[in-house]
Specification:
Distance between the termini of chain D: 18 Å
Strand content of chain D: 25-35%
Largest sheet of chain B: none
Number of strands of chain D: 8
Largest interface: A-C, 39 and 51 residues
Number of helices of chain D: 5
Shape of chain D: globular
Order of helices and strands of chain B: HHHHHHHHH
Largest sheet of chain D: 5 strands, parallel
Order of helices and strands of chain D: EEEHEEHHHEHEE
Distance between the termini of chain B: 31 Å
Shape of chain B: elongated
Strand content of chain B: under 5%
Number of strands of chain B: 0
Number of domains of chain B: 1
Oligomer: heterotetramer
Chains: A mainly alpha (63), B mainly alpha (222), C mainly alpha (255), D alpha/beta (206)
């Protein structure tokens, strides 16, 4: 199983995959951090005893 | 925190938060530069020749058109009256607001310029020169644009009118900005001469802009 | 599970929570298989040599940039026509992801173009229409930024998305026409119709992998958007909650 | 400290809204300006606040800080609240405290006085009209300015907030401050003089 020789333009190929990788990791990190921050703020508010109307019992549409 | 620092932080927060419109200028800049080849045609040599001019005109329009909210927002909710009653002179308030607007709108233009220069098929020295002149020149556009924004603050739809009023005033900045860029590319002509004149224009427009805009705001209070 | 059943955000959050780990695993496996096929099994192109490997990322991203816009158009129909409560959540979540994939498509296209055409950017018909699509994505994100109330704002964005979707084929056609008008004929045709089977299956696998990746990111982004709306509701409730006994004024308020 | 207004005339929209007004407001008493709509109540207040040019006459603050103009020694509490919806309650107030300088109450203390301290981290967009008015009023408490210019101060305020506002104003008067309030509501300030505008020649009635 020969290692693929990427030829003279190897740099461009690796650069292309690097761009893809950086972009995907960037989006994943952004989503995870955003989600974590939102959960923290939600927990803070709910800790102060603020509940959505009947948030547990009946299913409500998107508030 | 000192008054002017607090004002800068406030303006920065307002423009970078949701609904602030910080990147609107850069987006408009991207669209204007992208549309040109559709009209002119994808001939790379032609685009390379007119590239710096297109980038400069795009930055000029993007700055002027994003300036109408500079004073209008504060006037609509009464903050402008309170700013005028502060012990800080109104001229300095105008300068700080312009710097904050430039940081939020002007700087993204300069950052976007190299990418758009690729669309214009500019080679590295031309890209470097364009970015340098834009970095130095765009504050002048903001200071001059502030005069238009102050003059039309009491009008309902003053945005376009302020651009029309101020466009003639910005022609020197445009001329020296583009000529400095082309000078950097063509060997014989010196780059420094038009560049330094551009810097002088920026300082001049800072002073004139601050005083004229502050006076316009005082006159428009009712 | 009927689609309408997912309308309930709480149940949707649960559904996403269970599905995402599996989807991530599938995505990783598909990428591994696809890229293995691309790098080790597929032969180099007789003209371009190894640079054709970029195709295995560039083409899936190009496909995704259109697929994401299609899902946004479908979601905008969901908002305007069927009033599905999660439709505008998915629309708002998809815009940034679509923009990122379109940008990657442009970047990889430019990186692919440099060794072959000698310049970073060529006003090739396909790249140009993807560029216009990229600007449309940024426009949608900008419109979302200016909206205070997500429920009311969603209608406006839905209309713009639909108008965009209708115009896409027209843009594609006019850019092609504009391109042939100016462009000298000898543009290397990328990936001609008859693509060798040994290069085709890795391409399909990476495309599928990219689609799974998008679905995973989309579900997570929708989860965030639902949390953002709940946060907004809780804040509204907190503001309207009657405050306890107002504090007595502090003497010497302004001396 | 005494605010002396001598033969003041102010033009607004081409009309001489105030003509030859002479009145004085002494420290410790509230000058309550009444009169029908369009009589020039708001115009008088905005003129003192330096927001409108004087057609004739003069406004002087005797006993005030000589280096500052009259406007720089006034707090203006008008119809508009000057709040930014994108900023949180605390950020709005902290900005004005830094911008005006001469700090008095801290941001949290001022919020407690107006009963908004539990919303300090909330963006101002979520506030109701009454809450926005109370937050705007808190601006008067966070920096020292001797003159308070109040234009319809109790509009959009509930009874509890109104009582709180009057208490603050009385505290300001006790500490030697000066208040000029344009209002229709009968406000029970501890010491007040009234000025009825809308007559041809307005004179201060004790």
């Amino acid at each position: 199983m020969m290692l693929p020789s990427l030829g003279p333009h190897a740099g461009f190929i690796l650069a292309a995959y690097a761009v893809f990788l950086v972009a995907v990791i960037g989006v994943v990190v952004w989503i995870v951090l955003d989600g974590r921050q939102l959960s923290r703020q939600l927990a803070e508010l709910e800790a102060r005893g603020i509940r959505r109307r009947g948030s547990d019992k009946k299913p409500d549409a998107v508030p | 925190m000192k008054p002017l620092a607090a004002l800068f932080l406030r303006e920065w927060r307002l423009s970078t938060r949701v609904g602030g419109g910080a990147l609107m200028g850069a987006l408009f800049f991207l669209i204007v530069v992208t549309v040109i080849p559709f009209g002119v045609g994808p001939d790379l040599k032609l685009l390379a020749r007119i590239g710096p001019a297109i980038l400069w005109i795009g930055a000029l329009l993007a700055t002027l058109l994003s300036l109408d909210r500079l004073f209008q927002a504060d006037r609509d909710d009464g903050a402008l009256d309170l700013l005028m009653m502060g012990e800080t002179p109104l001229e300095l308030v105008v300068v700080v607001k312009c710097l904050a607007h430039w940081a939020a709108t002007g700087l993204p233009l300069v950052i976007a310029a190299p990418f758009l220069a690729v669309f214009m098929n500019l080679d590295p020295p031309a890209i470097g020169a364009t970015v340098a002149t834009l970095l130095v020149g765009t504050p002048a556009l903001t200071f001059l644009g502030a005069i238009g924004a102050a003059l039309t603050v009491s009008l309902r739809r003053g945005g376009l009118l302020s651009a029309i009023l101020i466009l003639p005033l910005t022609t020197p900045v445009l001329i020296f900005g583009v000529s400095a860029t082309t000078a950097a590319v063509t060997e014989p002509t010196p780059f420094l001469a038009p560049f330094l004149i551009l810097v002088a224009l920026v300082l001049f427009s800072l002073v004139v802009g601050a005083i004229a805009a502050a006076q316009a705001l005082r006159l428009s209070a009712n | 599970m009927p689609l309408i059943d997912l309308a309930n955000p709480t149940r949707f959050l649960g559904f996403v929570g269970r599905l995402v780990p599996w989807l991530t695993a599938v995505t990783i496996v598909l990428f591994a298989v696809g890229l293995y096929g691309a790098f080790f099994l597929a032969p180099d192109d007789y003209q371009q040599g190894a640079t054709v490997k970029i195709m295995f990322i560039h083409v899936p991203c190009a496909w995704l940039s259109m697929f994401v816009y299609a899902t946004m158009a479908a979601s905008s129909l969901g908002t305007l026509v069927w009033r599905h409560p999660l439709a505008d959540v998915s629309m708002k979540a998809a815009a940034p992801i679509g923009a990122v994939f379109t940008f990657v498509c442009l970047a990889t296209g430019s990186l692919w173009g440099k060794p072959m055409w000698g310049t970073w950017w060529v006003w090739d018909a396909r790249l140009t229409s993807v560029l216009v699509l990229f600007i449309m994505y940024l426009g949608l994100i900008a419109l979302w930024q200016t909206i205070e109330d997500p429920i009311r704002g969603a209608k406006a964005v839905a209309v713009l998305t639909l108008v965009g979707a209708i115009n896409l084929p027209i843009i594609k056609f006019s850019v092609d026409w504009w391109n042939t008008l100016h462009q000298p004929a000898a543009v290397f045709r990328l990936g001609g119709p008859t693509i060798d089977i040994s290069m085709l299956w890795p391409l399909l696998v990476t495309a599928l992998a990219a689609t799974c990746l998008f679905v995973t990111l989309q579900l997570l982004a929708m989860k965030n958007e639902i949390k953002r709306r709940r946060l907004r509701t809780l804040r509204l409730i907190e503001a309207s909650r009657p405050h306890a006994v107002a504090g007595t004024p502090v003497v010497g308020a302004a001396s | 400290m005494r605010l002396a207004i001598e033969s003041l005339s102010v033009e607004r929209g081409g009309r001489l809204v105030i003509a030859g007004l002479t009145v004085a407001a002494k420290a410790g008493t509230a000058l309550v300006v009444t009169g029908p709509n369009g009589a020039g109540k708001s115009t008088l207040i905005r003129t003192i606040a330096g927001l409108l040019p004087l057609a004739a006459g003069s406004i002087r603050l005797e006993g005030g800080d000589p280096e500052l103009t009259v406007a720089e020694q006034c707090h203006y509490f008008g119809h508009q609240d000057g709040l930014k919806t994108a900023l949180t309650v605390k950020e709005n107030l902290a900005f004005w405290r830094d911008f005006y300088g001469r700090p008095a109450l801290s941001v949290i203390e001022a919020l407690e006085v107006v009963g908004l301290e539990h919303l300090s981290e909330l963006p101002a967009a979520y506030l109701s009209a009454g809450q926005r008015r109370r937050l705007s009023f808190a601006r008067l408490l966070i920096s020292h300015r001797p003159i308070w210019l109040l234009d319809e101060p109790t509009s959009a305020l509930d009874a509890g907030s109104e009582v709180r506002l009057i208490d603050c104003v009385n505290d300001h008067l006790v500490s030697g401050g000066l208040v000029i309030a344009a209002t229709h509501a009968p406000l029970t300030f501890r010491a007040r003089e009234s000025l009825a505008l809308g007559h041809v020649v307005a004179e201060a009635s004790p």
